[in-house]
Design goal:
688 residues, mainly beta, 6-stranded mixed β-sheet, 5-stranded antiparallel β-sheet
């Protein structure tokens, strides 16, 4: 049970996912959806049988079967926003890898080395430098060149020592985005900046601008030297794609690629057919077979290509690293593609729901306007887009009703998924207004003394308007469905088509009369077993035992500062969790006690298999099987970073958590009470 007061980019909501596959107790299993952002790709030189993949949050994946299957190898850095801009494999040893990173939050980064094929990484140098590119000299693998925001750096001893080879505080020799090294001469280095390209032929002692023929102010994102003709150089920039026949002295712009696709991240030459060149852009992949005389797009225009490899053994085999869609592979030079993401699950999930009538069906919300929602109908084995009809990008929340999906758009409103139309459609709000009306009897000629005052009646006028309130939560009872919104609690008695506001009517002491009020509602919980409702407002817990006709208010024990979650385990016991810790009431909210957890900042909470499970921002999980009196630590799934998203199945024993970027993890909690816990001491609730 949970309610979120505020959302941030890095906060991810959890879900219940009930899989049709068998689950072993005490074992976490990653269940997708597969795919995600692939920031960088690398292969062992001479083949693509062994591949490496870098993400935008420091993770390194590997494949030993040409990309058919992936596994998480390790991570780089201590931050969750370390962008792996490049991976380089030492041609002398497939176990030796180099990688560069830059960090979004701290504006830092560095160069890292792995000696065990990507499983563990050590900071090699340039700590604190935002390194965006790196190359290894083909003629001398001990020579590494790194391009950073503050300059170009050279190592001649495989990264043990680094020297700056670009002048400090130079107006133009900064903000480096690409590096290339001459295949025969390690002293000849090309470097592209946010502005224009530069070149040195003496290992960095002297630099010369090489932008003749280029559009001024071109961000040079990629430089490639023809391995068969070292004077033939390609460069890609935001202004287009260029090539030079004289080592960069003069550039000629390729024709045929429209401006909408000119942000070319990589440009690669076919190793077997030199006239064939590929341009990987943020608007699709382009190909020329005649050295740039003509180009054609060979992927959907919606694909954003972040990285690319060509198989040197079979140059018709293309491996693309994309934004959102993961790895896409073509075996025929770009005529057709197939997703190759088994084992690579790196979607950014912000919310999800599971179908209570069909447990193999689930819906997830992603941080992508291109593909905002995915649905699975087979327990997570396959996922399909489900966004037709959405008008404002990914919704804030999704919910599973007994009849299907509901979505709460960010700007406000409520939508239900209409299976007959294969589209999302908006629901209605019904307003009621009482209008006095005079009912006059048939007029007869009577004396003034016997005349009667006309009877006044109250007419209720109903009107239908679009549902525009911001929805925070929903619950579905047998006879009524409820929505917690910023304008109050709303109810539908026609399966979610029309909604009306439910005022909070306090219980009236004898002889008193208090007006009903409406308050913003952060969360709502109901019970199909009786008429109980629990509604959480910004400062109070509202409890109703008669289906919302009357309410009793209780203050919550802290001033909310962030996300807050609550769970009523029965008519008397209620749990609250937030960055203030976990609080428990055993008298329906009249009084509260704080649980003595060592971690006070709670990210999310769920109830599963007679246990309460909470998570913190560090990725730790705690649980209690005795209504919060004692707590133990649960061995987590091993995902790096925040595990603040928790859900449970309503009648089963499965728990699913969602990490910030590593997808969903499933755990069967139906085993012995402490079999899945780490050997830590129990944490007791304080006694009154």
């Amino acid at each position: 049970m949970r309610v979120t007061l505020y959302r941030s980019y890095w906060f991810v909501i959890g879900l219940l996912l009930i899989l049709a596959l068998p689950s072993k107790a005490e074992t976490w299993r990653q269940v997708g959806p597969e795919g995600g952002d692939v920031q960088s790709l690398a292969a062992v030189p001479g083949s693509t049988r062994t591949l490496f993949l870098g993400t935008s949050d420091g993770h390194i994946f590997g494949s030993r079967d040409a990309g058919d299957h992936w596994e998480l190898l390790g991570r780089i850095g201590m931050n969750h926003d370390d962008v792996i801009m490049s991976i380089v494999v030492d041609p002398r040893s497939a176990n030796t890898l180099y990688a560069t990173s830059w960090t979004l939050s701290s504006h830092g980064g560095g160069v890292y080395r792995s000696g065990d094929a990507g499983h563990t990484w050590q900071l090699l140098g340039l700590d604190g430098h935002m390194v965006r590119a790196m190359a290894i000299a083909p003629s001398n693998p001990d020579t590494l060149v790194a391009g950073a925001i503050d300059g170009v750096y050279l190592s001649k001893d495989a990264g043990k020592h680094w020297n700056r080879i670009s002048p400090e505080n130079h107006d133009d020799l900064r903000n480096f985005d690409s590096i290339a090294i001459d295949p025969m001469d390690p002293n000849t280095i090309y470097a592209g900046t946010f502005h224009l390209p530069w070149k040195t032929v003496d290992g960095g002692k002297n630099w010369a601008p090489i932008h003749q023929g280029m559009v001024d102010d071109s961000d040079v994102m990629s430089i490639t030297v023809d391995q068969n003709d070292r004077a033939h150089v390609f460069a890609s920039a935001c202004s287009g794609i260029y090539h030079s026949a004289d080592g960069g002295a003069m550039w000629t712009k390729f024709k045929g690629i429209p401006p909408t696709s000119r942000r070319t991240v990589h440009i690669l030459q076919d190793p077997k057919r030199p006239l064939t060149v590929y341009a990987a852009t943020t608007g699709g992949l382009w190909k020329t077979s005649d050295d740039g005389a003509s180009w054609r797009m060979i992927t959907p225009a919606s694909w954003s290509i972040l990285s690319m490899l060509i198989d040197p053994e079979n140059s018709d085999r293309l491996i693309l690293g994309t934004e959102r869609l993961g790895v896409q592979v073509s075996e025929n030079g770009g005529l057709t593609y197939r997703a190759s993401n088994q084992g690579f699950s790196h979607r950014r999930i912000v919310d999800a729901a599971a179908d209570p009538q069909h447990p193999e069906r689930a819906l997830v919300v992603l941080t992508s306007n291109f593909e905002p929602m995915l649905e699975t109908a087979d327990g997570g084995r396959t996922w399909t887009p489900l966004a037709a009809g959405l008008k404002s990008g990914p919704p804030r929340h999704v919910f599973a009703s007994p009849d299907g999906w509901f979505a709460a758009p960010g700007p406000g409103g409520l939508m239900r998924y209409d299976v007959s139309k294969s589209s999302w459609v908006s629901v209605n709000q019904v307003t009621e207004k009482t209008v006095p009306s005079a009912r006059v009897a048939t007029v007869k000629k009577v004396s003034a003394r016997n005349a009667k005052t006309p009877a006044i009646t109250q007419n209720v006028v109903r009107s239908t308007i679009p549902f525009r309130a911001t929805v925070n939560d929903m619950t579905f009872n047998r006879d009524a469905w409820y929505a917690a919104t910023e304008i109050g609690l709303m109810v539908s008695r026609d399966r979610g088509f029309n909604w009306t506001v439910v005022p909070f009517s306090p219980v009236q002491p004898a002889g008193t009369n208090s007006a009903a009020v409406t308050l913003p509602v952060r969360a709502i919980r109901g019970s199909n077993a009786n008429s109980y409702l629990w509604a959480l407002t910004p400062k109070q817990l509202e409890v109703s035992g008669d289906g919302g006709k009357t309410w009793i208010s209780h203050s919550i024990p802290f001033e909310p500062r962030g996300p807050i979650h609550f769970h009523p385990s029965d008519e008397k016991t209620v749990f609250l969790a937030s960055d203030h810790g976990v609080f428990i009431s055993r008298d329906a909210g009249e009084s509260w006690r704080q649980a003595s957890l060592t971690e006070l900042s709670i990210g999310d909470m769920a109830a599963v298999n007679n246990a309460i499970v909470v998570s913190n921002a560090k990725g730790s999980l705690f649980f209690s099987r005795d209504d919060g009196r004692t707590w133990g630590q649960l061995d987590g799934p091993g995902a790096a970073g925040e595990l603040s998203a928790l859900r449970s199945r309503g009648t089963g024993s499965q728990l699913v958590v969602a990490s910030a970027t590593e997808g969903l993890f499933l755990l069967d909690m139906g085993s012995a009470p402490t079999a899945s816990t780490l050997p830590v001491s129990k944490l007791s609730e304080p006694r009154p």
